[in-house]
What we know:
There is one protein chain. Among the domains are: about 1-25 and about 80-195, 3-Layer(aba) Sandwich (Rossmann fold), CATH 3.40.50.300; about 205-235. Helix content is about 65%, strand content about 10%. The protein contains 15 helices and five strands. The chain has a five-stranded parallel β-sheet with strand order 2-3-1-4-5.
Amino acid sequence: MRLILLGPPGSGKGTQAQRLVHKHGIVQLSTGEMLRAAVAAGTPIGLQAKEIMANGGLVPDEVVVGIIADRIDESDAKKGFILDGFPRTVPQAAALDELLKKKHLKLDAVVELRVNESALLARVEKRAEETRARGEEVRLDDTPEVLTKRLAQYRSLTEPLIHYYSERRKLLTVDGMMAIEHVTREINRILGAIGALEPKDEEPAKAAKKPARKVSKKPAKAVEKAPKAAKKAAKPARKATKGASKAKVAKKSVKKAAKAAKPASARKGAKAAKKPAKKLTKKRAKR
Ligand code: AP5
Ligand code: MG
């Protein structure tokens, strides 16, 4: 799975990336973390980035694109990765498209974490407090003044990526105001709905695959034509064989997944899968 986490400073990109890493066993590629490590190590890139970061600016595109190009070539990124804080500008996004194209890799989704600006300062201040309490060094940019500048950069240079990825049908927006674990659950749910999760991450769906084809050829055929999101949504429907109540749950899950899968292709597919699910409902009700 290859994923981008998009959101303003303090929206929870790092927090959610780590939780996804833990669940799916893929790597987190945070340009902010890499740049901070370069600053701490005093490398040429670190020396170039230090001042810019401390002032809430953006490090030049060619620098971060170079870092990411090298990093995704490493062996631990072969299984997939979560980009946290990259891309941050339209030229960075275009460079990433080129990079992935050359490597014949596909981007699964861009998850935008939407958080009210008023909540961001409180989060960043809390993080600074907690870091201090652990006796660790507080990030130089975790101050109200620098946060204001980082936010301004986000609005002018990074926010256009929402449109960029929405046009490419990659954007999925999640309410980042929910509690941390709810945000994680929601991200996993929508990734499942668009079919971005590996089969091993989705045991119940895998289990539902076999009975699906036995029920009836017609619905199975219709579902085959639908995108993965709709297939997954339809699976519980086809698995349910013990009465109308299960079929009801199935119908609900089709609706839910169709709603969650924001890309138009997935929405279309969910519609296609809805019909067979309904047919089954009737049959079962009869039984
Ligand atoms: P970077 O390190 O990427 O910082 P950022 O984007 O400003 O974001 P943060 O790391 O501050 O926040 P986050 O979204 O990760 O939130 P977190 O999970 O920590 O970049 C730093 C700098 O490096 C940039 O300003 C730039 O100079 C440079 N840079 C990096 N990438 C670049 C690029 N591609 N191009 C150019 N320059 C680049 O959460 C924050 C706090 O909130 C935590 O305490 C957390 O516990 C809490 N929290 C998280 N989620 C929730 C929740 N749902 N409810 C309540 N609290 C929550
Ligand atoms: Mg972060």
